Amino acid sequence: MWNQIYYQLIEWETKLNSYDFLQTFFNNRFYLILLVIVLLHLKNATYRSLFMSALVNIPGTVLHELMHFLVGWFLNARPCNFNLIPRKGENGNYVMGSVGFTNITFYNAVPASMAPLLLLPIGFYINRYVLPMIEPTFLNYTLYVLLQTIIIENAMPSRADFKVAKMYFLGVVMYGLLAIALITML
Predict the structure, then answer these.
(1) For residues 161 and 154, what is the distance between their CA atoms, to the nearest angstrom?
(2) Mean pLDDT over all residues of the chain?
(3) Could you report the per-residue pLDDT of 128-180, keeping only the tens digit for each?
(4) What is the pLDDT of residue 85?
(5) Who contacts 78 (Cβ-Cβ below 8 Å, separation ≥6)?
(6) Running DSSP on this structure, what letter comes out for residue 172?
(7) Tens digits of per-residue pLDDT, 25-35?
(8) Which residues of 105-120 are buried (b: 16+ CB within 10 A; e: fewer)?
(9) DSSP string spanning 97-156?
(10) What are the φ/ψ torsions at residue 118 (nearest 5 degrees)?
(11) According to the 3-state scheme, what is the secondary structure of 17-61?
């Protein structure tokens, strides 16, 4: 019986990693979108349990909060805590993590609160330079899509992040004008 299961798995692996199947799968955006939606659906299915939700979200939460911490540290916002222990929020949703600061000012509030956006260039770099070096197998492609989904999903600032940035109107204006100036120079 175990031999039959083993040989069946080998047969499936051979089919999934065949050149024709991989070419069809890699070159069709429909399959990519389908894979992302399936992964997100599986992730959302864990939201019924705080433990399962935390387990599934921990890699992305670490990346998201680490960006806040690093930018806040670099811009002298003085990070005072780094919390990855999930808890129930005020409106009943789960808060997966947080970073506290003791020196939020007009010049560091916007970059510290929008810091997770820095994950987007990291995801772009992985796509552009790392993916071509990986052996093209179905498992590697699935893991790549999972990693990129985690990176891109956690690059989005939360409502709390926007709330902090909005509290410092001068910083929003200053960084808005800086962004406009940079865009017009391109």
Answers:
(1) 12
(2) 87
(3) 999 889 888 888 888 898 899 889 999 999 888 999 888 988 888 888 898 89
(4) 82
(5) 72, 101, 102, 103
(6) H
(7) 778 888 888 88
(8) eebbbbbbbbbbebbe
(9) -EEEES---TTTHHHHHSGGGGHHHHHHHIIIIIGGGS---HHHHHHHHHHHHHHHHHTS
(10) -65, -10
(11) CCHHHHHHHHCCHHHHHHHHHHHHHHHHHHHHCHHHHHHHHHHHH
Per DSSP, the three-state class of 184 is helix
CA 126/CA 136 separation, integer angstroms: 15
pLDDT at residue 72, as a whole number? 96
| pTM for this entry | 0.80
Find how far residue 100's CA is from the centre of its chain: 20
User: Alpha-carbon distance 4 to 9, whole Å?
Assistant: 9
Tokens representing 75 are 């811009």
| Residue 169, both tokens | 């109107």
> Which tens digits make up the pLDDT trace of 100-138?
999 999 899 999 999 999 999 999 999 999 988 988 888
* pLDDT for residue 84: 86
Q: Which residues contact 39 (CB under 8 A, 6 or more apart)?
A: 145, 146, 149
* Secondary structure letter of residue 93 according to DSSP: S
Inter-residue contact 104 to 80 (CB < 8 Å): no
